[in-house]
Structures
1.
Amino acid sequence: MTRPARTRGVGRTAQQYDPLGAMGSRPLAIVLGACGVLWALLVSVFDRDVVGSPTLSALTVLLVATSGAVVFVASSPFRAPFPRWAFVLHVLLLAVATVTSVAAQWGPDRSALNDFMSLLAATGIVMTAPYRPWTDLAVGGLVLAVVTGASWGIAASVFPHHVPVGVAAFLAAAPTLVLTSASAVFAWTFAGLAERVQIRAGSYSVERAERDGIDASVQQDRSTILARDVAPFLAEIRTREVITDADRARARAIADGIRRSMVADADRTWFEHAIRTEGGAGAVVDDPDGLIASLDADQRTVVRTFLRAALRASTVDPAGFRATIRRAEEDMALPDEPSVSGKRVSVAIDLAVADSDVGIHRTFDPYFAVLRVTFPDLDVAVRPSALALRFSYDQH
């Protein structure tokens, strides 16, 4: 099964622009989620000034823990990008937890310190800031702020305590509003800056850089042929008075060698050049139709970076590298993305790696994270002494 690449530009997240940065910030989201669950548990057990309902208190803690688990699973770099359904579920769980928290301590609650859901709803938006666009963050935060304000406002109206109902509702929603604004500004600013950086970088495109590299390699190969074969032959011929049949045969052999070299250079793709440059002379590239050339600039950058890291790794045998590129048999859109027209290309890369599963993950996990964002259908199979990657993309 193949799936189209995600559309670029509108709605892209910090995780999609900087998958390694999002991978580095994931521990913060995990810590925030764990601390929230621990705080909710301790307050529910030891710091309630209203007896309320222990069952609803337990349900609140369970909902908070479930929302944290959703973020933990969906923020994994190997499931990137963070799906919208996970964000919606996360917000829904926090909203329900907010209501059950107020219901659990229904009564004349006089201490704001044990109203933990007001702050946990706010930090719930912060946890997802690197993973969703600013519009989703703003809508989700606004929903939580409304639920929080309405819940505490209703409680304040039933059990008044020297504070107007409107003020109580606003104070309850304020943390969520503030942190939601900060998260949305971060996501919007990051995406805008990253987009401008990409536009500026496009002035000297990856295609041009690769073409220059291939041209330089071709020029070097031809210079080697001239210096090794042609120049000595011409110098030898100049010293002779008669050209023999053997000289003519040698000249034809040299000409045939130059012709074969020029044909090979013409047929060589950027992919093969990249592999050859990194020492993969014995690697096998099975791409009879030259489909790998249809990758766009961003995709080429990611693939070339992985190739460089893989072929330079001390545990990888370049001779055991094999890449197979074919037209995909099936064209299917992602569930939450519009179908993208155009033919699909499937890529299979197999490497021989003299390392354990853990060692392979330790070496290549950051590259898998970047590949996963660029090619959402990436499938990685890690086995002892072997690594296999499968992904597809739309032919450009």
Note: The first strand starts at residue 284 and ends at 286.
2.
Amino acid sequence: MAGESKDRAGKIRIWRNARLATMAESAAGLGIVEHGAIAARDGLIVYAGPEADMLAAFGPTVFGKAGEIVDCEGRWITPGLIDCHTHLVHAGDRANEFEMRLAGATYEEVTKAGGGIVSSVKALRAAGEHELVAQSLPRLDALIAEGLTTIEIKSGYGLDIENEKKSLRAARLLGEHRPVTVRTSFLGAHALPPEAKGDKDAFSDLVAKEILPAVAAEGLADAVDGFCEGIAFSPEQISRVFDAAKAAGLPVKLHADQLSNLHGAELAARYGALSADHLEYTDEAGAAAMATAGTVATILPGAYYFIRETKKPPIGLFRQHGVRMAVATDCNPGTSPLTSLLLTMNMAATLFGLTVEECLAGVTREAARALGLFGKTGTLEAGKSADLAIWNIERPAELVYRMGFNPLHARIWRGR
């Protein structure tokens, strides 16, 4: 059986009679290939392009030698979807705060009343690791059902050493329970826990000097994030955390300019951040700095919609300066209880004016870039992970156009 399994693993698997949206940078637009095919071996794409050229590359007997051939019957194939900004691991919900906001309370007022992130901290601290996994799996399953193959999951509801580690371990365990790639981000500088007694300086020092090194020592985080905002942490406080991240060899990301302009985008760029996220109040200097640094702008329409913001992120400035844009759910219990990348794309288009191409690139190629994974996934190209989504659609625009409708036919993760 072992020999048989090894032989099967080394065989080529082929998806033929398909239309491809490769999302490759070298191609125009969506990288559309009519009459396309994809071949994969050992979880990696070895060919993606016109079916006729595959025959030329591998020889006319390639179909006879393949371990499996899937006739896609003219369906579309895109890269598997990537959600590059989530707080998926959390306990309980905050539906009561939703009611407060419906009655007129602002995000800041909810926070000052003891709600907001701190209420999620209490719930997470009371939950065990396996309980966190059990509560988070349905949210992950909803995303997987729409073609998700890679997800980023942040901590930030523990806010002490043991509970931050618990949260990150639970996120890692989700990748063992489901066939999906999980990237974790340590978000210790998310909010003040009750025991901090309002001292942001002391807590940001604790995050930088104790919690972050403990997390890094156990290899629990792939990146370090922070929340730079008046109700959270100042640029100076975030800088201390980012200095510690760099010392630990971890890339950084930042919740920036969501509710005001503290020049978080420029701060993120100064540290060479993988991404700066939210960005509703980012100015031209911030956009220009991100473009120079190669920092991805992660657009989060779910939070904008849910907390009824009116200030839109400066999409025009990002286009003008050539800032790459990712799109993500920001799945979290308080400001974006959203578990649909398809709906997120529709929101990005209708609320912010992103094009179909920008939306699809935002949940594939640019989302991979925002996670530092562009060399491994996000496009249909040889050498990348065979992460595919196969759709029952007539044109790619349907993936952005429809609401509450899931046209996924099949999802492939690492070739299976």
Note: Confidence is low (pLDDT under 50) at residues 1-8.
3.
Amino acid sequence: MSTVNLNLPDVQIREIRINSITGFLGNADDLVKLSADGLKDHNRKFTQCIGCSTARAGCMVSMVTDAAVISHGPVGCSSCLHDFNMTYRVNASLRNKTNRRRRIFSTNLQEKDTVYGGNAKLEATIREVYERVKPAAIFVLTTCAVGIVGDDIQSVCDKAQEELGIPIVGVACEGFRSKVWTTGFDAAYHGMARKLIKKADKHRDDMINVINFWGSDAFADWFAPFGAKPNYLTPFNTVEELSRAGEACATVQACSTLGTYLGAVLEQDFGVPELASAPPYGIAQTDRWFRALGKLLGKEDIAEKVIAEKKEKYLPQIEEIRKKLQGKSAYVAAGAAHGHALLDIIGELGLKAVGASVFHHDATFDSGRDENDQLKQRVGDYGDVPHFNVCNKQEFELVNALIKVHPDVMLARHGGMTLWGAKLGIPSLLVGDEHAGMGYEGLVKYGKMIVETIENDEFVKNFQKHALNPYTKWWLTQQTDYFQYK
């Protein structure tokens, strides 16, 4: 049964759609088996912090270069969106894109608007934004205040679209809608698929969609032997470029957590097949990824040639890195699929995985394919991962776990997580480019960074002597999942 439905004005949340959870502690292998047999979330008696779906939706829509974004709610709710202005300016250079200031606005709802409703204010804001910047499209993001009041933003957006003649995309992403913050990605993609992406009469064999964040341009080199170029979704696209996603011959993922919904939508509603493979992290999975791509494109011989050439060039370098990391241990803290990807990397480089903190867990994927399950692939390729904690950015659980396992290195992708490793004297590596560890060459790049991080530990050792730990000795001796309902 399909989990995607573009006829709905708002996307279904992940808890309902694919049985996603935010609480679990055990072994990775147990989690994989429970995901297949029936998975129950462990709610918390105490929550320290949580991610917001509005920010995740804003992460995607604010990167559409010629669009504008309206945060419909109190002005404070738009503060997280302005972070993406700097993110865009810094990362656009990785794709040789022109830096453009993001156009982000707020309806600035006041107390009286929560009493009488904010529809009139939203209508006026849409018109003013259009007159000010003449965008190719406008995205309207909901916030918790709007969800509580019950503003009908979809009707307002549809009416404004008829009046102004450009797509006005309503994105239902208020924070309390879902405990799984990545539902915000789904909400953004749902709106894009409903109002921006067009169905194509024929598909181009020279264009492959890549659902990603804003990493470096790794895929151009990989697609070139197959006679294709990447169409990155959505960072740095124009509205017109985004509308052509339905013309591609295939869709691949940089992160299965990010793109599970859009990949399934493009296949089901636009006839663009999604690659039946998790992203290429680690040698085993990179082999599978290239072979799956070759099979999908009908170019298996080219895939085998690419694999052979890449291995001849990079395997000796990978082996040298393994020797340097022999006997070392690592802990991973990241979003779900990228956390699994980092576990692939350390498994391939010979590091012992002593635990992980991932922000949520998807029991299945919208494609319904087992091949997209990167955690299952990891357990099969490199073995089980103990002390596998699913926690939606609960830093008190991360600190509890790190003190118990005290690895030789901590790997993370999100800012703020490596601080805790450093406070405990653990060399910690933060890499924001999700493409950095992909493929055979990515193992070399990431491996060198891990070696350098471990060898240059003087700062964290000194930092540990002066850092303050806000958590009590009582908490640090409890089980990591002490506050989770079993």
Note: The chain has 21 helices and 13 strands.
4.
Amino acid sequence: MSIALACYNLSKSYGPTTALQHLDLQLEENVIYGLLGRNGAGKTTLLDTIAGAIAAESGTIEVQGKRLSKREHPEDFCYVRSQFRHFGGARVMEALQIAATFYPRWDWTFARELLNIFLVDQDKKIRQFSSGTQSLIGNIIGLASRASLTLYDEPVLGLDVLMRERFYKALMEDYANYPRTILLSTHLIDEIAPVAEHIFILESGTLLLQDHMEQIRKSAYLLRGNAEAMASFTEGKRVIYQEAYGRGLLAAIYEPLTDADMLHVRKLDLSIEPLSLQKLFLYLIEGGL
């Protein structure tokens, strides 16, 4: 597949704090990506850098093979920030009319449909809404723009579970009909698992893990059992976390397992279960890997 966007060796610091550290990242065309990380991991800095809102201290960004200059944003691009605070004194429809002028693929029929789905009064001023509803207005713009590269920074921040589900449903249905490259940055980890096709886990400005979601499902496991048996099974495997568990050990591994591996687990009398994306994230962070 073609590369929609590539970041090479990106670094950015704020005083003594390193936000991005020699980061490499590639986004293929027509794939939904999940960008996961704790607060302060560097997620927003990465998105701001891609969007040209801030300049990296080193490194390069390429879009469709074209190198961007510092603080240059990509073409046919939409960046939805965690809180939509633009045009606060404008009414919703006025804000959408302004936004539509920036996006050649803007779909007015879809935008009006989204206003109904998210129960947004198009005649009210944006500043009259709660922060959650303001986020929805940004999400409407991101969806209706149909930009070939769309970045969302915490798109469901402040939304209740119903509106979060409606957002993901609208995103997936529209993506199926109009594929594009989408990067969703979020801390609501398990919610992104059914949506994202590829996952990036960011910590302290570096990538701890990047893999296809399907591969993650096949590789992330939690084992419990006797310490000696655990050592025998995990030798040579990628152990991302380990701790004492009663009289035995608990170990999280990231390794595709064969039928022979599963037979070995049963012979050693170890318990094994798949790891959720959230648990994988937690064990990666706790394990310092």
Note: The longest strand covers residues 3-14.
